[in-house]
């Protein structure tokens, strides 16, 4: 993972680890009391996250990180994920850090973004 204290680089390293299907690096980056939520409201713990949410990343073609904004122990990242089949989606994630470990991620998603316009996503 990235150098201590550089939370934007930790986030970039996490995205690279996801793309490389490097679960060990992602697990190491998460605090033991890690929590994960989406608009569906799960608020799940670390073991449940890896049991329910982790899957092989071979379907991902690339991540396009649009912006990372860090304010102390909190950060937002907005990105576009492009699948190998050409489909894409856009998310914003809110990170909370405990030192250099990620203690919480809240994911916000909605329409995708293409050519400067919002594009409705089917569920």
From TrEMBL:
The lineage of its organism: Bacteria, Pseudomonadati, Pseudomonadota, Alphaproteobacteria, Hyphomicrobiales. InterPro entries: NTF2-like_dom_sf (IPR032710), SnoaL-like (IPR037401). This is Nuclear transport factor 2 family protein. It comes from Bradyrhizobium brasilense. Residues 12-104 form the SnoaL-like domain.
């Amino acid at each position: 993972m990235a150098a201590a204290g550089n939370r934007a680089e930790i986030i970039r390293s996490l995205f690279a680890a996801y793309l490389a299907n490097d679960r060990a690096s992602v697990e190491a980056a998460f605090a033991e009391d890690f929590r994960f939520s989406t608009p569906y409201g799960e608020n799940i713990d670390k073991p449940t996250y890896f049991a329910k949410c982790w899957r092989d990343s071979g379907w991902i073609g690339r991540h396009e990180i649009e912006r990372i904004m860090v304010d102390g122990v909190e950060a937002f990242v907005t990105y576009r994920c492009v699948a190998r089949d050409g489909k894409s989606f856009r998310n914003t994630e809110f990170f909370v850090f405990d030192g250099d470990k990620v203690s919480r991620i809240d994911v916000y998603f909605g329409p995708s973004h293409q050519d400067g316009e919002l594009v409705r996503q089917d569920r």
